[in-house]
Design brief:
This protein has 55 residues and is mainly α. It has three helices and no strands. The radius of gyration is 20 Å and the shape is elongated. It starts with a helix and ends in a 7-residue tail after the last helix. 0% of the residues are buried.
Amino acid sequence: MFERFLLALYGAYYTTPLVAVRIRTIATSGEPEPQHFDPALLAQVIQTQAGRRRL
């Protein structure tokens, strides 16, 4: 029951116009995504398996 209440509360809060504007402002204030693709960097990541999860 608490979970349903919390989900309804979050839904009501995050869909208000004021909060939506604030979230949009925060999201667009960061650095933009890079506009280029570096094949050499990709090859290095694949070669070294960088980012691979190690268990």
